[in-house]
Amino acid sequence: MHARTSSEGGELEDTCGGGGSGGAAGCDGKQRRILANRQSAQRSRLRKMQHCVDLEASLVQLTQELGLARQRLVHALALRDQAHQRNAQLRSRATSLAAAMGADFWRGGFV
Asked: Do 90 and 82 meet the contact criterion of CB atoms below 8 Å apart?
């Protein structure tokens, strides 16, 4: 379909910009390209929106995983601290026992 519009001076203008030499086929080709470009732009916008949705979902998941990892870290640090305390207690006890038994025990000379 060859579209023509009226300009301010009352003259009809070719909306395809072909000046009448391209005919209806030139107009249809331009309209198809315009439509194809619009559709391509719409698909691009939809892909971008989907990518944003995917990123937001990943953010939620990673935030949850980070919270769990922090909880596990706190628990592991608490266990480490308990082990250090127990180790210090055992060392103190071993020192006390060694002092009580005397130096001969540690040299292998059971009296």
From this structure: no
How many Å apart are CA 57 and CA 51, to the nearest integer? 10
Q: Are 14 and 2 in contact (CB under 8 A)?
A: yes
CA atoms within 13 A on the CB side of 85: 6
Residue 109 identity: G
Q: What is the pLDDT of residues 18-56, one digit of tens each?
A: 555 555 566 799 999 999 999 999 999 999 999 999 999
CA distance 3 to 33: 16
Distance CA 99, CA 45 (A): 80
Residue 4 has pLDDT above 50, yes or no: no
Q: Give me the DSSP letters along 6-18.
A: E-TTS-EEETTSS
Beta bridge partners of 14: 4
Number of neighbours of residue 27 by Cβ within 10 angstroms: 19
Q: What is the predicted pLDDT for the residue at 88?
A: 95
